[in-house]
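Today's session is about reading a structure prediction critically. Students often jump straight to the picture, but the first step is always the sequence itself: look for stretches that repeat, for charged clusters, for runs of hydrophobic residues. Only then move on to the predicted structure, which in these notes is written as discrete structure tokens rather than atom positions. Here is the chain we will use throughout the hour.
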Amino acid sequence: MTKNIDSKAWKVINILIASVIAISVCAVPVSYYINSSTKLNSELISSLKHGRYQLEQIINKNPEFWQYEVHRMEGILLNLQSDPENSIWKIKDNASKVLLEVNPYKVNISWPSFSGKLAISDSHNHVAIIEVQISIIHELIIISVLALISILVGISAYIGLVRMPLRAVEKLWNQMLYQAQHDELTGLANRTFFHQALTEKLIEKEKNNFEIAVITIDLDHFKDVNDTLGHAAGDQLLKKVVVDFQSITGKNETLARLGGDEFSVILTGEGLTDIAPSIADQIIDKLSLPYEVDGTYVHIGASLGIAIDKKENIDADELIKRADIALYEAKNDGRNQFSIFQHRMNKMLTERKNVEEKLRVAITNNDFHLHFQPQYNMASKKIIGVEALIRWQHKEDGFIPPDKFIPVAEKAGLIVDIDKWVLINSCKQVAKWDNLHVAVNISPIHFHSSHLLRHVKYALDQSGLPANRLELEITEGSLLYKTEKTIEILKSLKDMGVNIAMDDFGTGYSSLSYLQCFPFDKIKIDRSFVSTLSDEKPESEAIVRAIISMSHAMNMRVNAEGVETNYQANFLSSIGCEEVQGYYFGKPMNSADLSRLLKEEEIDLTNVTPLFSSAS
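Below is the predicted structure for this chain, in token form.
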């Protein structure tokens, strides 16, 4: 996919260099010619002046001398000849008639030659002309030899000193061009080259009338690999992923690494409405399988966005933007899936960007508040704790549910600030309620950040809440890889006295294996299991029963969330589930309402809690 330096550019470079060498080559003979001709002219003029002077000295004494003393004049001219074999001296009268010619070797001088003449005068009148013609054939031979030698030297210089280094420069240039257009780690095209290739294909599409699709791929949990196993392991994983991409898309397609864990591929041809989703499905299936990295099996998964240009003739930026929008949609809908761009998504993206802007303002202005959902002990039928839940009441838009702004916060890098706010304020509030513990959800991003331990300590110090009354709920996304760093974080929290609960148990890849590796205090059964509890679905009851039995065997308490019916409550009570929460017992409420509930419970417990009887 690398493009060499343009042939026209190389031609221009070669011409320029050749021109410089040619000028240098010409400089030697030309310089010699100028120097020799200047010297010859100077000598010629000097000889003419000297001859004229001698003749005029004699003529002025004897005006008739020049008409009769031919032999003496001949002698004077012979003395002026420095090279008799290559020069002819003449004296002519005013009518250009040759009166005397000195040419002892009878040479016939033609081009190339120099010539010159001066008038001879007596005291008053021009009486004759002295003229000389000198051959410069010897100088011309020398110049030709010098020119030939210079040409040979120039050619040798061009081949040996220019052409060979030029090839090296071309090789270096192409190497630099390749590096500028490709990702160093994977060897794939980078974002710049991808954009260029897409632009060229779109131009070609207008001429040949075919379809173009862009599939943008984002690895769902790649950051977790970097954070837990290190960047070297992440690089190793990327190389393996690229091999799988190429096995699916084919090496002839333009596959690029746009940056980090984001890739994109260009598809061309017909029927891409069916082909592109098929390829996306293959990528999802392939990346859903575990990868072995440094002896550890990791799960990443992938989300994909597809944009297809059939007849719209849009530009590269717009097509890439549409694929990004579709990718955002796939990630927002739960990840590990693909989404095909539809024009309605533009509006949805605008809305999400609007939420992000408002979210930043809300964090700055402290516009959030907390609700607390009661957690009941099944044996005492009393509230023993609460789960802290963030709420956002926007001044103009009204209530914005967490499932609308939490994903935006995670994507925009704002979730750590929100987690910190919930952690500090929930600890401060629960410290006012005697003996209650508070459960706080910690996002995977916050868990692996360098801030978590400091934020927990700060929240406990500021609130005065005992550490054993704080419970951090952590999902499998935080514990995706059993690494020393993850274990160290959990151990540090345990050393502080904080309780740790695995949230949404049973919905991930390796829930059972985590129970052997991490010191959990509590297991929270995901609502998806609790909601299906009924006398018509005995398999759901078997799953929940097994989870509780296993947890008790490992000395872990159990909390069932999402309890909404009397049947579910009684079944959980009958099989020994210690804690429950859900709409059947109480919806999330603000601190004032929960304070009233706690006071009423002290007066008459039967009015605010359900009576647990045997399942009917």
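Discussion point for the tutorial: The chain has 20 helices and 20 strands.
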